[in-house]
Amino acid sequence: MSDLYSQAGVDVEAGDRAVELMKAAVGRTQGAEVLGGVGGFAGLWDASALRDYTRPLLATSTDGVGTKVALAQRLDIHDTIGIDLVGMVVDDIVVSGAKPLFMTDYIACGRLVPERIAAIVSGIARGCELTRTALVGGETAEHPGLLGPEEYDVAGAATGVVEAADVLGPDRVREGDVLLAMASSGLHSNGYSLVRHVLAGTGWELEAHVADLGRTLGEELLEPTRLYTAACLDLAASHEVHAYTHVTGGGLASNLARVLPAGLVAHVDRSSWQVPPIYSLLARGADSDLVALEGTLNLGVGMIAIVPPESVAGATAQLTRAGIPTWELGRVGVETPDDVTHHTLVTGTKGVRGGAVAMGGSYRTT
């Protein structure tokens, strides 16, 4: 049977070798709550660990890495894309104040190369370690004829838990709250269809060294997503935090608007930070400007905490100690007619009819 299947382009033995190569990395993410190890039909996680919660709410999220995988394939670098996957999935969970518990992954490929699959999973496992998430299982599927021999895609899902009384979000946000921006490590995993369009139009080579970046363009574009989960959970445990927003697809304003209550507007000062050089480079390549890109790219802001004024100093210091550059991005106020007239106003994103974001000022670049 396996010989017949291999004639169709599926290598079962390669899949078994890939599992052996990834076992150690996966095992490092698992604590006493995980039962059964690698290879079962389903991952088992001991829910009795939740018995101390008064009213535990489960939070779940699923996502992929998008077309950033195409650049990883072009450069033949596969051990960081998994970190991006964890960031896209787990850092969405922490927005609600939930602690991630476990994650599963799915990898589809045109040809199963054990070492390549193991490299991808090693990145996923590393991201899970950094976010205190157990990697309890996954699936690798070989799809010859659907994907090219060197092509693959990755996706994942995670589950977390939060005490009902501790859920963060729009209900907690108040007039006068302060927006604290946490720096991104780069583009993270969003806007890569635009990036690839720019690359195709300019002819820029991924291997070319770019002086403004201090490294090659490919190295910059494959920089893994910064993981905020641990820092955000620690911050919410030690300071009053009203909401978080993860700046992913759609950019800063559209994601911030999702966690604001109706009637309030977040005033964002574009001049409050210096936009990293990669964004100006891409703007030039697209024959555009940074304002036109702010609905697609994060422009250097990966996560935002909304906190009361009395939490600003302590929260900023704590996040900085955690290795995340943090600054005051703006404040929350009541929406006025002036906001509509003099700012770029964003509201009603992702189907959420809540507050609005007013983008004002001019971006600072090097």
TrEMBL record:
From the Swiss-Prot or TrEMBL record, state where the protein is found. Cytoplasm
PurM-like N-terminal domain boundaries: 54-162
Give the first-level EC class, as a single word. Answer: ligase
What InterPro entries does the record point to?
A: PurM-like_C_dom, PurM-like_C_sf, PurM-like_N, PurM-like_N_sf, PurM_cligase
Q: Which SUPFAM superfamilies does the UniProt record give?
A: PurM C-terminal domain-like, PurM N-terminal domain-like
Q: Name one GO biological process term.
A: 'de novo' IMP biosynthetic process
Ranges where the PurM-like C-terminal domain occurs: 174-335
Question: Does the keyword Cytoplasm belong to this entry?
Answer: yes
Lineage: superkingdom:
Bacteria
Name its pathway. Purine metabolism; IMP biosynthesis via de novo pathway; 5-amino-1-(5-phospho-D-ribosyl)imidazole from N(2)-formyl-N(1)-(5-phospho-D-ribosyl)glycinamide: step 2/2
This protein's UniProt keywords: ATP-binding, Cytoplasm, Ligase, Nucleotide-binding, Purine biosynthesis
Q: Which reaction(s) does its UniProt entry say it catalyses?
A: 2-formamido-N(1)-(5-O-phospho-beta-D-ribosyl)acetamidine + ATP = 5-amino-1-(5-phospho-beta-D-ribosyl)imidazole + ADP + phosphate + H(+)
Instruction: Please name one Pfam family that this protein belongs to.
Output: AIRS_C
Quote a single Gene Ontology cellular component term.
Answer: cytosol
Q: What EC number(s) would the UniProt record show?
A: 6.3.3.1
Protein's UniProt keywords contain ATP-binding: yes
Q: What family does the database annotate?
A: Belongs to the AIR synthase family.
Extract the PANTHER family matched here: TRIFUNCTIONAL PURINE BIOSYNTHETIC PROTEIN ADENOSINE-3 (PTHR10520:SF12), TRIFUNCTIONAL PURINE BIOSYNTHETIC PROTEIN ADENOSINE-3-RELATED (PTHR10520)
Q: What is this protein called?
A: Phosphoribosylformylglycinamidine cyclo-ligase
- Origin species: Serinibacter salmoneus
List the taxonomic lineage.
Answer: Bacteria, Bacillati, Actinomycetota, Actinomycetes, Micrococcales
Gene responsible for this protein: purM
